[in-house]
Fold:
Amino acid sequence: GIGSVLDVMLKACESLAPLVQAIYNTQSDQTSLQKNDKSMFTIADGLVQELILNHLFKRVKFKAIVAEEDVKVNVQHTPFTVGSLTIASESLITLQVNKAKEAMEKYAAELESMEKNNNLNNKAATG
Structure:
């Protein structure tokens, strides 16, 4: 049911924490920029959104997902990029992105199994 979906989501978010922490520990002009509305954008924003939407949810499609950032993200091959920002191939951030991708794959498989066994979309939509 929905509780199981939320448990998987919590584990997925917790697995992203080391990546976000690595980014904030090395914050610089190479990891952040100011958007047109004067708010800050970090590579964490783009990477987390990419990993959740296109890796965690790659096998399970929800009816609608709201995403704030409109940026092209490459985590398929190094050097990884988020918009105009490039992540050094041998960096701690790249290592953490790779670990996060592995975790998202694991949790994606769990969600896919739930969908096949319990009709996830209908239960998640109706609560």
